[in-house]
Each structure stands twice: as structure tokens, then as C-alpha cells.
Write a structure and sequence with these properties.
With 206 residues, the protein is α+β, with helices and mostly antiparallel strands. The chain folds into two domains: 73 residues, no CATH class; 120 residues, no CATH class. The strands form two sheets. A six-stranded antiparallel sheet has the order 6-5-4-9-8-7. The protein has a three-stranded antiparallel sheet with strand order 1-2-3, with helices on one face. A hairpin with a 2-residue loop joins strand 5 and strand 6.
């Protein structure tokens, strides 16, 4: 291995670049080449072999590279998680918990082969995670208690997705708002088999 080459790693989603420049660690009283390790910028490069260096120096270099590889692997895995994976659900919930308004209204529509009262669209008004009202967009009439659970809060929608992931529902297609993290579209199973499709829109803080 030659130390003349530089190693750079880019963290996904960050504007910062982590750069590494090799240096040599020389063992005292040992007249053999030294090993090159990634360190901070500003150290002079060298081009020495590490094949005969004492094991403690070679292991130190290996730990540096293994640690860097593990960190980058975790970052890539989180950023490339499918929208229906538990990781994507956890990340979306965290964004919603951070950005959720105390009070909001949201419009929920269910596409299904069902009664109009069961499909909506319905405006759901929420304050402190408690529903204050559910009203049909077209008529302005209140939703009957029988159908309340069909038009949940954002937290209720997350619970529906969580249950579908745990139950292995297929197909399961979920889309999340990139800023607030709430689900904007949920496909629970094959729509041709009369499985509902949730569309979520017009979330308005109050």
C-alpha cells in the first residue's frame, strides 16, 4: 500500500466532506517500513510498506478503516431504505414528531368499493392529538361515529402503516411528505381486491 493517495468520504445529505491524508507511524528501534494510516489533513505523506510492522500497528490501521466503513454503511442503508420498510416508517414518524403542529386540519380520502360515507373526502380537525371534528368536504355534514375510525389522525395513519408492515401486507405502497414526514398516500393490498387506498392532502396548521 502506498500513502501517496488520498481518501475522501462524502456523508449523504450533508454538505461536509471528510477528507483523509495518510501518514506513517514509525516504531522505535525497529528498522522496518511503517504503516500508513488515515489521519487529519496536514501530515506529510510517505510510501512505506506495512507487511513487516508489529501487529499492534497493523491492527490500528485496520480499526480505522473498519470503523469508517461501518459508519458509511449505516448512512447508506438509512438513506436507501424502501418507503415501506420499518426504517422508513421510523424516520417518517421522527420527522412528524419534530414538525407536527399542535393543532391542524387534514383532508383524507379513501378509494374503495364502498358507500360514499366510507370514502369521503373528509376534513379531520385535530388538537393535541385529539379529533375535534370530522366533516365531509362535499356536504359539510359530520361523519357518523360508525365511520370515525375510517378517517384517522396522522398518528392513526402511522398506526395503520405499522400494522400493515408487521402483518406483511402486499402490495404495500406508502409515500411520505418530505418536510413534515406524514403519509400522503397509502396503498393497503391490491386495490382490485377492494383494499382501500388512502390519499392525504391539505394539511393545515391551525
Amino acid at each position: 500500500m502506498h500513502c501517496g493517495s488520498a481518501l475522501s468520504a462524502f456523508v449523504v445529505g450533508s454538505a461536509n466532506t471528510v477528507a483523509f491524508e495518510p501518514r506513517c507511524i514509525r516504531a522505535r528501534r525497529v528498522a522496518i517500513p511503517a504503516v500508513c494510516l488515515p489521519v487529519r489533513l496536514g501530515r506529510a505523506p510517505c510510501s512505506r510498506s506495512a507487511t513487516q510492522l508489529p501487529i499492534r500497528y497493523r491492527l490500528r490501521g485496520a480499526y480505522h478503516f473498519v470503523g469508517l466503513t461501518a459508519v458509511l454503511a449505516l448512512i447508506v442503508a438509512a438513506c436507501s431504505a424502501p418507503a415501506t420498510s420499518p426504517t422508513a416508517l421510523t424516520m417518517a414518524r421522527a420527522r412528524w414528531a419534530e414538525n407536527a403542529p399542535t393543532a391542524y386540519s387534514v383532508t383524507i380520502h379513501r378509494s374503495c368499493e364502498c358507500l360514499p360515507e366510507m370514502s369521503g373526502p373528509v376534513v379531520v380537525e385535530v388538537r393535541n392529538k385529539i379529533v375535534e371534528s370530522r366533516r365531509y368536504v362535499r356536504s359539510g355534514a359530520a361523519v357518523a361515529p360508525t365511520y370515525d375510525e375510517l378517517f384517522p389522525t396522522i398518528d392513526g395513519l402511522f398506526a395503520i402503516i405499522d400494522a400493515a408492515v408487521r402483518d406483511g401486507t402486499r402490495p404495500l405502497d406508502v409515500r411520505y411528505d418530505p418536510t413534515r414526514g406524514y403519509p400522503t398516500r397509502i396503498v393497503l393490498g391490491d386495490p382490485a381486491m377492494d383494499n382501500p387506498v388512502y390519499s392525504v392532502s391539505e394539511l393545515r396548521p391551525q
